[in-house]
Structure formats: structure tokens, C-alpha cells
Design goal:
The protein is 34% helix and 22% strand. The chain has 367 residues and is an alpha/beta fold. It folds into three domains: 1-52 and 93-113, no CATH class; 125-186, no CATH class; 190-363, Rossmann fold, CATH 3.40.50.410. The chain has a six-stranded mixed sheet, sandwiched between helices. Strand 5, helix 5 (206-226) and strand 6 (229-237) form a beta-alpha-beta unit. The radius of gyration is 31 Å and the shape is extended.
Length: 367
């Protein structure tokens, strides 16, 4: 039976989940929350929700303490000095709650009505893990199992007739020692890789990169809930493409022309060398403001997608982030080249408020 305190905590968690679900669009467009992410938890500020708790004073002063004689008044209401004027509005009460990444993914999936992903691939990746689920007669002292050792020594003394119930002294010998031991288990896992590609030419400013950063956080959150293992790679490009780490991906700003095909070629090189498509679920995401150097490079991109990338990936997702300096033409070319191909998923991201709808567009097909 659940105790009263456990029931109260569970009801409080339900309140928190309801508040997060209600304000999900605000959280999905808020890049600040990403800075609160730990390894397994995200801290979310929830205004006007407080967890009830006892408050203890500092034990200084009060009735029964300090100067005074028996019979003296302890004070009338209103006694004392103060400064400043009374406030007119309500105080700000903000509680930060830690929500697991799994809970956050579940809330997002329910609110956006995201279907469960059906992984492709002919076979699973086999992961090997060590489990300490055995007892062995040899091993290091750090793994000695004292209860099993004591039990073995007791059995030996009883069987040898040397055990005295009136003086129950058990003295283990070397042969009595028992140790924790492990066994290697092979477990099939569905693994996936996300390859983020982003145009970092001069027309992609800080506001556009923050939108991409926010969207990538939620994409990672959902796909990590669908696969046992998730890897993430990052490619930036202007006229040339190169792989970088996460921090560099979201902070680099360069100038010059844009050749989108350079990113697609590097992405395919990475996939062909490290992620066989028969074994991996592959998700390339490309973010740009829609400018490309020339029509011939755009045609090269369409050819690369048709002949090389699309046959090997679960879905190719292109997000066009609106910029006052970008022409926005590339998404139109994709629509023209792949009018009915479900593997090509396109999204226009006009501003931060459009992040939630863009996520639903990318992940709503369950590919």
C-alpha cells in the first residue's frame, strides 16, 4: 500500500507534468532551458508552484528567550520598526523541478501525438555488458561475498562436527571464501545516429543558430527515447564542409559562399565508412536559410539525395530557418524534386515560436 507521503509526492508530480504539458510550446521555444540540462535531468522553472515543507527559524529571540521579567508583555501586533512601502502585487514564487529526459520525451510525445518509431535495418547491433550475477570460489578481496563465505564456513563446521551452538564461533578458512563474479551478456540493441548539418555562412546569424540549437535538443530527446543507443555528429559548411564538435557547431560564424553539396558529400562519406545502413537507423538533419551558390550545385544536391542518401537513411529532414539575408529558394527546389517522397521531410522555421510545429513535422511520421 502506498503511504500518504508517497501519494502526496505522486500527486505533486502529476501537477508538475500537467503544467509542463500546458506550457510545452513555451519550453520548446525557450533556449534557456537547454542550459539547465544535466546528464539525466533537465531543471524546469515552474512559477507559482511550491512544494510544501517545514521552515525552521534560527533560534534567536522569540518567546522565552532574550531579556525580560516574568509577567512582561510579549508585544502587541504592529510593534517594531519597518521601512519601505507595502507591495501591491503578488510575490514571484518559482520552483525548479528536475524532470528526467525520459519523462520529458514522454510528455512531448503525448502532447505532439508523436507515433512510436519503427526502426529499419535488417539486424540489431549486439552490445555486450558485464553483470555481477554469479558466485565464484576465487577472486579479489574487494569482491568477497561475506554472507556466502560465512554460510560456507558454517556448513563446513557443522558437517565436520566442530560447530558448538553454545559457543558459535565461525572461523572461515581459505577454501570457504566466496566472491562475486560476472558473466558477459550479449543484448541486441537498436542503434541510431543523427548527423546535423548547418550552413554557417554570414547570413546565418546568432538568432538562427539559437533556433537550430533549441530544435536539436528536442530532436535528441525524442530519438534517444526510441533507441537504445544514439550517436550524434555535427557538420558545418559554407563553400566547404567539415566535422566539428557540438559547441563549435552552435557558435561558429563564417562568411563566404555556400555550397550545400559539400555537406551532403561529407555526410555520406561518414555514413559509408562508419554507419552501415543495414545496421543503423540514420537521420540526417540539414538547417539553412535556403541560399546556395548556384543552380548547378543545387542539382548536384538533388542527385546526391536521390542516388546516394535517401536509399540509406530513415528520413532526410531539412529545416529552413528564416533570415532577412537568405533567398529561401532551396526548400522550393526540394519540394519540386521530391513532391511525394515520404523520406524527405521539409519544415519552414520562421521564428522561435515555430519550433514546436517544426518538431512535429520532422518526427510526426514515425520514420
Amino acid at each position: 500500500m502506498i503511504s500518504k507521503i508517497e501519494g502526496d509526492v505522486r500527486r505533486f508530480r502529476d501537477i508538475v507534468r500537467g503544467r509542463i504539458r500546458r506550457d510545452l510550446k513555451k519550453y520548446m521555444s525557450n533556449g534557456e532551458m537547454i542550459g539547465r540540462k544535466g546528464k539525466d535531468f533537465v531543471s524546469i522553472p515552474l512559477p507559482q508552484i511550491q512544494l510544501p515543507r517545514f521552515r525552521f527559524g534560527d533560534n534567536e529571540g522569540g518567546v522565552g528567550a532574550g531579556d525580560g521579567d516574568e509577567g512582561d508583555s510579549v508585544g502587541e501586533p504592529g510593534d517594531g520598526e519597518g521601512s519601505g512601502k507595502a507591495g501591491q502585487g503578488a510575490g514571484q514564487h518559482i520552483l525548479e523541478v528536475d524532470v528526467t529526459i525520459e519523462e520529458l520525451a514522454e510528455i512531448m510525445g503525448e502532447e505532439l501525438e508523436l507515433p512510436r518509431i519503427e526502426p529499419k535495418g535488417e539486424r540489431n547491433i549486439v552490445a555486450k555488458k558485464d553483470k555481477y550475477n554469479r558466485i565464484a570460489p576465487v577472486g579479489p578481496d574487494s569482491l568477497k561475498h561475506f554472507r556466502r563465505t560465512y554460510k560456507r564456513a558454517l556448513q563446513r563446521q557443522i558437517s565436520a562436527g566442530t560447530y558448538d551452538p553454545s559457543n558459535p564461533v565461525i572461523t572461515p578458512q581459505r577454501s570457504d571464501n566466496r566472491y562475486r563474479s560476472w558473466r558477459e551478456d550479449s543484448k541486441p540493441e537498436r542503434n541510431a545516429v543523427i548527423v546535423y548539418m548547418m550552413d554557417v555562412s554570414g547570413s546565418m546569424g546568432d538568432a538562427q543558430k539559437e533556433i537550430v540549437r533549441t530544435e536539436a535538443f528536442w530532436i535528441d530527446t525524442w530519438l534517444a527515447s526510441q533507441y537504445d543507443g544514439l550517436e550524434t555528429r555535427f557538420i558545418i559548411h559554407d563553400a566547404q564542409a567539415r566535422e566539428v564538435d557540438r559547441d563549435t557547431f552552435f557558435s561558429t560564424r563564417e562568411s563566404g559562399g555556400t555550397l550545400i553539396s559539400s555537406a551532403y558529400k561529407l555526410c555520406m562519406k561518414m555514413i559509408d565508412e562508419e554507419y552501415p545502413h543495414q545496421e543503423w537507423n540514420i537521420y540526417p538533419f540539414h538547417f539553412s536559410d535556403g541560399d546556395n551558390w548556384s543552380g548547378s550545385d543545387t542539382r548536384d544536391c538533388m542527385r546526391l539525395l536521390t542516388e546516394d542518401m535517401l536509399p540509406k537513411v530513415n528520413a532526410f529532414c531539412y529545416g529552413q530557418v528564416e533570415s532577412e539575408y537568405g533567398s529561401g529558394q532551396f526548400i522550393n527546389e526540394l519540394k519540386k524534386s521530391f513532391p511525394e517522397d515520404e523520406r524527405v521531410i521539409l519544415s519552414r522555421i520562421e521564428n522561435r515560436d515555430a519550433v514546436m510545429e517544426s518538431i512535429k513535422t520532422f518526427l510526426g511520421k514515425g520514420r
